Amino acid sequence: MKKGKSGSIGLKLSIIVAAVLMGILGIKTGYDAVNLYNMEMKFNEKVELEKTRKLAREAEAIFTSMYQSMNDVRALAEEYLNLPVQDRKRDLVISCLAEITRKNTEIDGLGVAFEKDRFDGRDDIDGRFTVYAELFNGEIELADPDPTGEEWYDRPLQEKKMLVLPLYEDEGELLATLALPIMHGGEAVGVVNADINLKNFQHRIEAIEGNSADSIKLIITNDGTIVANSIDADQNMQALSGVQEDIRQILNSQEVIAEKVSTATGIYSKIIAVPIHIPGVADSWMYQSVNTMSSFTRNAKNSLWMATTVNLGVIVLMIALIYFL
């Protein structure tokens, strides 16, 4: 009788110990699975953020190149303005402008325009010194546009600072203009302007590996206009609603990491946005990565289920061993 009672107590203790161990293992299984999921999500977020930063820097490099070319022209113009009027040579300005345009393949066109009689005092009654260089089929074409009443001319003269003007279309091409005032004696006496064909951005964004309906890239201006879309170029020039808060953060040089419905796709997504800084101006554009949550969490969910399955298998094995032993 005593032996049977002792065996019964031992069995009960074994069952209690096994139950406690299985409970602890079950809790650990849940903790490990959730922890692994969170780690996978943070890793995915870090990778996507770094990719978006890299893409934004590539876009910035284009603007930096444009700014450098514009600044070279401005410096040349301001240097000539410090010479006696009779020593200021239009041909030298034109040849330098053409050469700078030829060397910078990112620029669609580069121009300089002066207020009447402010360069060399030789403007005729109908015009002033203006020249615009455009690279076309490997050759430089020159024009002398009339800047009267043009936003690219009037605004930088009035505001005395570099500007990125609203996007516009020309012969079916989407373009952006940067305009930089030429200063002399504290006055704005002329403007350097550069145009960029935004298909440059579109071609680059379309070539990004991994583009799909679940993973898209966007370049957006500071007023919410789409410049480039990795899977739907037809959205270019459209104004996105509901991105004002993202733009506010971008203009404060802050990155955006959020989970919400994308105004570009209408799908609940992981949205990561990075500023595209434009040299010489306060406003920034935005490089945005939009990944649907179903695609963004896919690897994390797979890891979660794998960890859960393995641990549950261990628990089942323990139960079997206790039962049969």
What does this 3D model show about the protein?
With 325 residues, this protein is of the alpha+beta class. The chain folds into two domains: 60-196, Beta-Lactamase, CATH 3.30.450; 200-296, PAS domain (Beta-Lactamase), CATH 3.30.450. The chain is built from seven helices and twelve strands. The protein has helices spanning 2-81, 90-103, 151-159, 199-206, 244-251, 293-296, 298-324; strands spanning 109-114, 130-136, 139-143, 163-164, 168-170, 173-184, 187-197, 215-220, 226-229, 256-261, 268-277, 284-292. The strands form two sheets. Strands 1, 2, 3, 4, 5, 6 and 7 form a seven-stranded antiparallel beta sheet that branches. A five-stranded antiparallel beta sheet has the order 9-8-12-11-10. A hairpin with a 5-residue loop joins β8 (215-220) and β9 (226-229). α1 (2-81) packs antiparallel against α7. The longest helix has 80 residues, at 2-81. The chain is rod-shaped and about 115 Å long. The two termini are 22 Å apart. The model has no long low-confidence stretch (mean pLDDT 85).
